[in-house]
């Protein structure tokens, strides 16, 4: 496995962990941890896509990370239930 494969796999694994935890109601979909895991995972996957110069996934993962940042900021500003 190459460096790119390892780093990319870690990013995708983090995104899948967030999805799994949310799907089984272990973490909230609009919770800070969910957004944080998506930001980290998508950013790593975006970086790996950049390393291999694969533009479609740079756009996908970059957008995923940015949308998650916005979600995290909104979650932080919102009064907690």
UniProtKB/TrEMBL annotation:
Protein name: CBU-0592-like domain-containing protein
NCBIfam families listed in its UniProt record: CBU_0592_membra
Keyword 4Fe-4S annotated: no
Organismal lineage: Bacteria, Pseudomonadati, Bacteroidota, Flavobacteriia, Flavobacteriales
The organism's place on the tree of life at top rank: Bacteria
Transmembrane segment boundaries: 6-26, 33-52
The CBU-0592-like domain, residue ranges: 5-77
Pfam family, one: CBU_0592
Keywords: Membrane, Transmembrane, Transmembrane helix
């Amino acid at each position: 496995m190459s460096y790119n494969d390892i780093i990319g796999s870690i990013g995708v694994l983090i995104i899948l962990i967030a999805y799994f935890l949310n799907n089984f109601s272990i973490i909230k979909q609009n919770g800070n941890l969910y957004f944080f895991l998506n930001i980290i995972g998508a950013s790593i996957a975006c970086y790996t896509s950049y390393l291999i110069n694969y533009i479609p996934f740079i756009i996908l993962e970059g957008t995923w990370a940015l949308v998650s940042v916005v979600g995290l900021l909104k979650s932080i500003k919102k009064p907690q239930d």
